[in-house]
Amino acid sequence: MISLIINGKEIDLDTPMSVLDAARQAGIKIPTLCHHEVLKPYGGCRLCVVEVERMPKLQNACQLMAADGMVITTESEEISEVRRSILEFLLINHPLDCPYCDKAGECELQDLVNMYGPTVGRYKEEKRKVPGSHKDVILARNMERCVVCTRCVRMCRDIQGASAISMVGRGNRTKMAPFSAESFNCEYCGNCLTVCPVGAILSRLYMHSFRPWQIDEEVDTICSYCGVGCSLSVQMRDDSIKRVVPKIGAGLNRGLLCARGRFGYEYMASSDRLTVPLVKNNGKHEESTWSEAIHIVAERLAEIKSRDGGSAIGGIASARCSNEDNYIFQKFIRMACGSNNIDSLSRIGFAAAQKYFEDLLGQGITANIIDGLKNSEVIFVLGGDPTAINPVLGLSIREAAMNGSKIFTLGYARGLDRFTALQIDVPVFKEADLLEELVVSVFTAKGVRGEKLDVDNGIRIISEKLSGYYDVNGFNEMKNSLLGSSSVSIVFGPDLVQRTDGHRSIFAVAGLTYLLEARLYLLSERPNEQGLIDMGCVPDMLPGGRPVDIHDFRSKFDLLWNGTVPAEDGLTLLEMMESMKRNEIKALYIMGDNPVFNLPDRPLVTEALEALDFLVVQDLYLSETAEMADVVFPATGWTETSGTYTNLERRIQLQKKAVHVTAGMDDWKIISDLSCKMGYHMSYSDAEDIMNEIAEVSPLYRDLSYREISRGNCLWPYHGEPLRGKINELPSIAESEDTYEADFYLAPDKPLFHSGTLSRMSPSLNRISPEPALKMSDEAADKLGLGEGDRVTFSTSLGSGEARVSIDYAIRDNKVLFSNNFRDNGVYGLLNYKMDRITKAPGIEGCEVSIKKMQEH
What we know:
Blueprint: E1 2-6, E2 9-13, H1 19-25, E3 49-52, E4 59-60, E5 71-73, H2 77-93, H3 108-116, E6 139-141, H4 151-159, E7 165-168, E8 175-178, H5 191-195, E9 201-203, E10 217-222, E11 231-237, E12 240-246, H6 259-263, E13 278-281, E14 284-287, H7 290-308, E15 313-317, H8 323-336, E16 342-344, H9 350-361, E17 378-382, H10 386-389, H11 391-402, E18 406-410, E19 422-424, H12 431-446, H13 453-465, H14 475-484, E20 488-492, H15 502-516, E21 519-522, H16 529-534, E22 541-542, E23 546-547, H17 551-561, H18 573-581, E24 587-591, H19 595-598, H20 602-610, E25 614-619, E26 631-634, E27 643-646, E28 652-655, H21 667-677, H22 687-697, H23 706-709, E29 745-748, H24 763-768, E30 773-776, H25 778-784, E31 791-796, E32 799-807, E33 815-818, E34 834-835, E35 842-843, E36 850-853
Parallel strand pairs: 1-5, 15-16, 15-24, 17-18, 17-20, 18-19, 20-21, 24-25, 25-26, 29-33, 30-32
Antiparallel strand pairs: 1-2, 3-4, 3-5, 6-9, 7-8, 10-11, 11-12, 13-14, 13-26, 22-23, 27-28, 31-32, 31-36, 34-35
Helix pairs in contact: 2-3, 7-21, 8-21, 8-22, 9-15, 12-13, 12-14, 12-15, 18-20
């Protein structure tokens, strides 16, 4: 216990901290300019000086550690005079343009001058002149306002790990500048905006459009993009979003955001939003009323159910919709339509891996706190770049590396390039071979663990078939580091799930997790992939992860839902597509997703949907899939509705409504109204009412309430009852017999600035990244005679595309990468697939691609 006195107030501290932090903890404000909560103490501005008894000079409160018996004064005439002099020096060059500056009203320098003076400047020197920079697409710089606090540089270097800006020049010519001179050309996280105390760095999204005091409402909510679920605040004026800002110290992101979370909100105000229901007549969509559209859908679905049975109807849920939406959707498909044919596009990545991991190791195996990465001695990253898929999680890996952790990556992870101890490269698409060798090596060294006999036996079977030696550079170093560490984390991405033998990689990673007692993190591209699984939007599980084919579980839901749950497992996503082609599934209901664009083999998906008797889509926009629908419902989106989301940690968080006037209807409301029309009654007053029912029926969510969730610490296993996993089938043991001898293979890219098809509706993100690029290694570019920015055509057996070339030195094999975000120009439409027989995910590896340079005109 440390006891000290600040301004006559006795303060007791349980942990060591600076005098500045001790004062703030006691509610005593000490002024600063260079200090910020998320940055290390710097001691540059000297505004935080305090008097300490028995110390002859004033001390910097941010750097002075609190000690037992200290007596401190934070305000006196001497201290005020020092602060006034420092501010007077700063104002020599700082322009007095407060009425014009966008920072006015939340400028820390303005507040301090108002508090301490000076009222008149005594220095007559000419103010320095620095040309403003407005050439960057997102960030504007006015270095005449810079007070050289270095917050932005320290944030970019020490927290973001990007090191994209620096202080340049000397004396009164010192200023911040990006290394690319005119534009920032960085990760555009905008975290420099958060920490800048003055108007030196500003966002062009809202310059000269409003003042901070004109904000009508500020709503704390969560981000709508990836599975991290960052906390943020939406600032509203006239029922429209003016700005998104982080909440410093709040949520798992602690005030950090990525480009998508900070600048990608504009998609909600897109002029392409659907506003009224559409019904197709004679091949064309016509506007309809809600009552007419709901009547048509209810009548057609009831007719198909009566004629062909409930199994002739399928449903595709959405990881962009809330837990409440997805719960109501699966209840509707099962009870009103009589079908277990329900899945989501998460099947092509997260859902497939999560199910197999839990079958092997039990429920909750991926429920690990992101902050735990920072405390890991060794982090093994594979299957994708976490800094692009889940950027804030990626920052934790970077921080761990800066604190001395060893980072090993298997394959491409561009955002970790400078932080990786070793990148392991294997022959193209042969990651499963290395992982099986690795798990066998660890098993041989550590022996049988004995807690999961099926896993032990599976590894033993693999070991009998393998040589026990793998000749890849760095293999032994990585193996020895994993074996020698007491704290290992494994970060597993979707790329290795999307393989015909993806289950082999998943089993090997599960074995490593088990043998090393590692924390396992499953990267999640969408905000509610875990939540839709927990809500039962899978063909073989009811809410709470209870198997459909077990009578006792099913009978409980029969009683609670006042009906009969179908007894047989339904079809997975790709199985439904095949069933549609065979004309066995006659009707499909899609909530909030776009399978035509987001699934591989677009011709197959299009053919399957065209074979349907009836297709219903509810979405924000008229997507490629909605264009094919017989009926389209306009839904509400992020900030227009309330609900809960479950992130990749299995943390349940509350998304709050901010926009009150909308043309669409909440997803759950559309479904419940339709269900009532079909004769199965569902009536809810709001999303909280639905959560109360979920808490009653789901063994995982038992007794949960919005009040508890809103506190922000609703973590697995809540008050629930996890279910022990079961292994349906061990992985295949033999190595893949496929050979990959083509010159180049096409594979998906996961860009930092885009996510799914929502981000293409954001003007700001499109300014940062206006078109997709075909990424390739420098070796591939040399072989093709290509340079950075050259335009090429590329083609597979399914079609072709055009793009500019981007040379990425982190790519070390013959894959070329292309994204799936821009309309009429997505990679999945060019990839065919074979389904993994165990995970039911699509194997999209081995797609040969030809590339040709376009002639300049």
